[in-house]
Amino acid sequence: MSNPMKEIKVEKVVLNIGVGKGGKDLSNAEKILEEVAGQRPVRTHAKQTSQTFGFREGAPVGCKVTLRGDSAVQTLDKLLTVRGNELNESSFDEHGNFSFGIDEHIEIQGMDYDPEVGIFGMDVSVNLVRDGSRVKKRRRQSSSVASSHRVDKEEAIEFVKDKFDVRVV
After folding, report:
1. Are 97 and 56 in contact (CB under 8 A)?
2. Kind of pairing, strands 86-87 and 167-168?
3. Burial degree of 77 (CB within 10 A; 0-12, 13-18, 19+)
4. 161 vs 73: CA distance, rounded Å
5. What CA–CA distance (Å, rounded) separates 67 from 82?
6. I need a surface site. Which of 63, 80, 86, 133 has the fewest CB within 10 A?
7. DSSP code per residue over 88-154
8. 128-159 burial string, b = 16+ CB within 10 Å, else e?
9. pLDDT at position 10, please?
10. What's the pTM value of the predicted model, to 2 decimals?
11. How far apart, in whole angstroms, are the C-alpha atoms of residue 84 and residue 131?
């Protein structure tokens, strides 16, 4: 029998749309994320002023949603089908996390094109953990997680292949 503490889980899925400016485009992007994720997004703001891109520090430039639990797994499954259940090996980092992009939100099942809203792409970032990884994040008596208990790239790839039937190329 395998150790239940070694079981890999999806901790969170973060959906992000970077618009580059506030206004109507940003509110449209927020509507799209709310429709995809089923919860209200938060705005992201510029960290520094850039004359090249034309925004100032603190200006709203995008929006994001963090999903956890069953809704994260269901949304991730839906978003992976947009990619044809295929990911690049370079999408995975050495800590077992992975990210991918979606070019057009209208490719997602159940999303329709609205000419007033337009078409937006989004970034999807997924964090994989094992039970017990909370010890490094807690406020009191935080501790490091042993290297044998951390999720590495190969384990993350195997998890995604088994759980979501994804082909990694």
Report:
1. no
2. parallel
3. middle
4. 14
5. 18
6. 86
7. -GGGB-TTS-EEEEES-GGGSTT----TTT----EEEEEEEEETTGGGGT-STT--PPPTTTS--HH
8. bbbeebeeeeeeeeeeebeeebbbeeebbbeb
9. 95
10. 0.88
11. 30
How high is the pLDDT of residue 1?
A: 47
The class of domain 4-168 in CATH terms is alpha beta
Contacts of 49 (CB under 8 A, 6+ apart): 55, 56, 57
Residue in the block written with tokens 């979501």: 164
Q: How far apart are CA 121 and CA 108, in angstroms?
A: 11
pLDDT in tens, the chain (169 residues): 488 888 999 999 999 999 888 788 999 999 999 999 999 999 999 888 878 877 788 888 899 999 999 999 999 999 999 988 999 999 999 998 999 999 988 888 888 888 888 889 999 999 999 998 888 889 999 999 888 899 999 999 999 999 999 999 8
The residue ranges of every structural domain in the chain are: 4-168
